[in-house]
Design goal:
The structure holds 2 protein chains of 2 kinds. By secondary structure, chain A is an all-beta fold. Chain A contains no helices and 11 strands. Chain A starts with a strand and ends with a strand. Classes of the chains: A mainly beta, B mainly beta. At the A-B interface, strand 5 and strand 10 of A face strand 5, strand 6, strand 10 and strand 11 of B.
Chain lengths: 112, 113
Amino acid sequence: DAGVTQSPTHLIKTRGQHVTLRCSPISGHKSVSWYQQVLGQGPQFIFQYYEKEERGRGNFPDRFSARQFPNYSSELNVNALLLGDSALYLCASSSGQGETQYFGPGTRLLVL
Amino acid sequence: AQSVSQHNHHVILSEAASLELGCNYSYGGTVNLFWYVQYPGQHLQLLLKYFSGDPLVKGIKGFEAEFIKSKFSFNLRKPSVQWSDTAEYFCAVLNTGRRALTFGSGTRLQVQP
């Protein structure tokens, strides 16, 4: 069975640019969550989507946005990139809210 | 705010040694508890989880964890580690109301052959 997939695997951007990260959940999973993992720290929650609606949001600025599509895949958008946005961005899917989350390999973003 | 503390940041053990990694959380409501592992070059994988019932849960690869509600703890144990257990281990708590995982800062385990 295919797990959670994310694209791209690596990305290099410059300050002020915009980035879009993509995630495909495990087949049958309707919930997608996004996390940011800075080197040396645990993942930090950004968003959760369930049935195409935002169900939770972490302490991130409005530069961060996301959406979920009818096929339950999801995009994370970050505007006006800052150096501090350099991190591994993880997507996790679950069959429903409050269920076990399974993680993808992540997208490593470097902002120069 | 909910938080998770992992007491050991870096642990070095010899093969066959016993392992215990500490995890404490601060949240008074209903929680679901997880341990995830990240092997070098790989993505986060679920090691074990506790939702309810028997507070001693068993996971993959011989790992187990004990939920002690009175101590707000969920420590990870393994009787005899192997070199292949070298990885970073994360404790996480799911606030069933907020539906978001809160992670600890992780423990890097290095097992020497």
